[in-house]
Amino acid sequence: MKKILECISEEMKNAFEAAGYERELGKVTISNRPDLCEYQCNGAMAGAKQYKKAPIMIANDVAAKLEGSKVFAKVEAVAPGFLNLTLENTFVGEYIKEMRTAEKFGVEEPEKVREIVIDYGGPNVAKPLHVGHLRSAVIGESVKRIARYMGHNVTGDIHLGDWGQPMGLIMNELKIRKPELVYFDETYTGEYPAEPPFTISELEEIYPFASKRSKEDSEYKENAMACTFKLQSGVRGYRALWNHIIAVSVTDLKKNYENLNVEFDLWNGESAVHDLIPGMVDYMKKEGYAYLSDGALVVDVKEETDTKEVPPCMILKSDGAALYNTTDLATIMMRMEQNKPDELIYVVDKRQELYFDQVFRCARKTKLVNEDTEMKFLGFGTMNGKDGKPFKTREGGVMRLENLIKEINEEMFKKIIENRDVEEAEARETAKIVGLSALKYGDLSNQASKDYIFDIDRFTSFEGDTGPYILYTTVRIKSILNKYMENGGNVEVANIQAPVNQSEKQLMMELAKFNTSMEAAYEETAPHKVCSYIYDLANAFNHFYHETKILTEGDEVKKAGWIALLALTRDVLETCAYLLGFKVPERM
C-alpha cells in the first residue's frame, strides 16, 4: 500500500506534467503552517529559474489543472509561488478504510529481506543486572521488534561476559571457602555433581568481595589468574564449575529479562569464540594485517581521511593474552559464518564509540566481513538522576534493576488504587504492565544517544508524553468498543466513512502517517520515532473523543464509522506498544 504522501505527490506530479512542467517538481510535504493548510508543494519556486517564469504563474497553472481533483478539496496558489493543499475528506476516508484491511496497516514488504544480528545486553555472569544494563536491553529489544515488523530476519544475541578474569576470581574464592569441593581435585576422574555448589545469592556476594580483595592482595590476584588459566586451558574440574556458574547465572538473568519483556535468540558469551581465536590470529599474521608493536600484536586501522589519531587495534597483549577486541572480532567472524548477516548492530554505551570504531575498521580491513556488510554502532547516553549524575540508590550505590522495576510497580500500584476500587491482585498485575510501559517509554521516548533524567513522578504520570498516558488512551478506546458490543454492535463489520468533522479528519491523518513513521524508525534505528508517532496519535484521538459523542450518536451509520475508526486506532496503538516492548491491559 502506498504511503499517503506518495498518493498526494502522484496527484500533484500529474498536475505539473499536465501543465507542461517537469513531474518531479510535484513533490508534496506536510505543511509547516498547519493553520493555513494540511500539505504544501514548493515545486513552482524550484521551477521558476528553469522555465524563466514567475513562481506564482507556475503555481496558478498547476492549481488550474487540479480543479475537480478527487484528492484535494482545496488547492490555493499564494505569493510568491507556494501551493497550499487541503485534502478531500472522501479521499482520506477511503485511504484509512484501505489501511484497516491491509496487512500490517499498509506497511510494504521489503524488496530484499536483510539478515540482521543485534548485539545487546552484555551483562557479566555471576553479577546482578543493575540500572546500567537497562538502556541496552530496552533499546535493543525495540530495534529488534521494529526490524522484524518491517519484514527482516533478526537475531538478538545477549553476548555474555562469561570468560576471563571474573571467572578466575570467583573460582579462587570458592577454593578458599570450600576447599573440599571435588572440582579442585585435579586427580578426580568421576562424574561431577549435577547440582551447583552455590546459589545465585552466594555468587553475587562472592564476585564483588573477590574483585575488591584482588586489588589489595597481589598473591590473591595471582592465584585468581592461575584459576583463569586452568579454566581456559580446559582443566575438567574448572570447566565443570564454570558450567554451574553459567547455568545458575543464566537462569537468574532470564528471569530478570523476562520482567523487562526482553528476549534473546542467542545466549552466547565470549567463551563461544575462545577456540576460534588462535586460527583468527594466525590468519591475521599470515595475511600481513597484524604485526608486533612493543611485544603486542596489533592491526593498523587509521585511514587517510582521519582528522584525529586513531590508535591501532590490539589483537593480543604482550603476554599473549586476548582482549575484548580479540573476542569481539572473533564473534564477528563467527556471526559471519553462522548467520551471514547483511547488518550487525551493536547497542552499547556511546562512550565506547572509539573502541567500536577500531573493531569495525579492523574487521573490514582484515576482511572478516563482506564488503557490503553494514556495521552499525548505536551508542546510547546515560540514565541520570534528578541531580544530573548517573542514577544511584538513595544510599549512593548502583541500583539493581529488579529493585528499580519494583519501585516503579509500587508507584503505579498506589496510583491505580487511588483512582478506583479494584481487587489488590488485579491492581498489582495491572501495575506491572503499566509500570513497564512507564519505564520503557520513559527511556525510548528520548533519542538513544542522549542522556536523560530518570524522573519516576513524570514517567508514571497518566498525563503528558508518558507510557501510562498511551495505555490509558488505548484502554479508553477498548472500553468504548466493549460498550458498543454490549449494546449489540459488531465492531468487525463496521465500515470507516469519510470524516464529518475536523477532529475526526485529524485523527485519520495521524493514522495515515503510520507506515511512513515505522519506515523512518527502522531506517534510522530510532525507536523514539515510534514514541513520537503514538503520542501524536493518542493526542489526536483524545481531541476527537472530547469533541464527539460517539455512543450516543443517533445516526447508526455515522456511529459505526466512528467505531471502525476507533478499532483501527486501538490496533495501531497496540502494535506500536508491542514494538516498544510493552503491552496494553484490558482495563486500568
What would your notes on this structure say?
With 588 residues, this protein is an alpha/beta fold. The chain folds into 4 domains: 4-87, 2-Layer Sandwich (Gyrase A, domain 2), CATH 3.30.1360.70; 165-259, no CATH class; 270-372, no CATH class; 401-580, Isoleucyl-tRNA Synthetase, Domain 1 (Orthogonal Bundle), CATH 1.10.730. 51% of the residues lie in helices and 10% in strands. It is built from 20 helices and 13 strands. The chain has helices spanning 4-18, 43-51, 55-65, 89-101, 134-149, 165-177, 200-216, 218-233, 236-259, 277-286, 324-338, 353-365, 401-419, 424-444, 456-459, 467-486, 502-511, 514-523, 528-547, 556-580; strands spanning 28-30, 39-41, 72-78, 82-87, 115-119, 153-157, 290-293, 296-299, 313-316, 343-349, 374-380, 383-384, 452-453. The strands form 4 sheets. Strands 1-2-4-3 form a 4-stranded antiparallel beta sheet. A 4-stranded parallel beta sheet has the order 6-5-10-11, with helices on both faces. A 3-stranded antiparallel beta sheet has the order 7-8-9. The two termini are 35 Å apart. The model has no long low-confidence stretch (mean pLDDT 95).
